[in-house]
Amino acid sequence: MAYDRYVAICKPLRYTVLVNRTVCHVLVGASWGGGFLHGITVFALTIKLPFCGLNILDNFFCDVRQLAKLACANTYTVELLMFLNNGIVIVTCFVLLISYTVLLLKLQTHSTKAKKKITSTCVSHIVVVFVMFGPAIYIYVLPFQAVPVEKVVALFHTVIFPLTNPIIYTLCNKEIKSSMWKLVCKYLLQCRLFKKYFEVNK
Questions:
Q1: What is Dmax (Cα atoms) for the chain?
Q2: CA–CA separation, 20 vs 13, rounded Å?
Q3: Percentage of the chain exceeding pLDDT 70
Q4: Residue 161: its pLDDT value, please?
C-alpha cells in the first residue's frame, strides 16, 4: 500500500506502468512469503521444546512467548531468536514507511486541494500501521521478562485494533462519511421529535 500510494501521488502519469499486474503479484507474493517465513521460523523454534507439568497459559490466546515459558528447558536461545525474528519483521514494516515520509515532505510543493487528498489517503494507513505495531513492539521489545499489563495490550492487539481497522479506512471515503452523517442527523432528529412528543403528552 505504501508503494501504491507513493506512485499514485508522486508519479501519477506512470502509475499504470509502475503498478502493473506483475508488480502487484510480486508485492502480494512477498507479503505472503514473508508472513509464511515468519510463521515457519517461530514454529520451528517452538516445536522442539520439551513440555512437562501443567500446560496452562497465562493469557487468553496462545502466544509464542507464553508457550516458551511453559517449556522445561532453558529457553534463552529460543527467546532471543524469536525476539530477533519479530524485531526484523517490525523494523522492516517501519522501514517501508519511508515512502510516506517522502510523500509528506512533498506536500509542501502541492496545492491545498492536493495536500488534503494526499493527507486523507496516507494518514489512514499510517494510523493503522502505528495502531497495529505499537502494541506488538510493546509486547516483544522485552523478550526475557514479563511485560506489565501484557494481557490488556494483547487484547487490544488481537481484538480491539483489528475491529477498528475497517472503521479507520472507511472514514476516509466521502460517500461513507456523508451516509454516516445523514444517519446521525436522522437519529438526532428522531430523538428531538420523541422528546417533544413526551413533553406534550405530560
A1: 75
A2: 13
A3: 81
A4: 79
Instruction: Copy the grid coordinates of residue 89.
Output: 519483521
Question: How many residues comprise the chain?
Answer: 202
Burial class (CB in 10 A: 0-12, 13-18, 19+), 107: middle
Q: Write the single-letter amino acid at 119.
A: T
157 grid coordinates: 492487539
pTM of the predicted structure, to 2 decimals: 0.65
Rounded CA separation 202/192 (Å):
15
Residue 103: all three cell numbers together = 510523500
pLDDT in tens, 70-128: 888 888 888 888 888 877 877 777 777 776 777 777 766 666 776 776 776 677 777 77
**Residues whose CB falls within 8 Å of the CB of residue 11, separated by 6 or more in sequence, listed in order:** 18
Q: DSSP secondary-structure letter at 14?
A: G
The mean pLDDT of 1-15, rounded to a whole number, is: 80
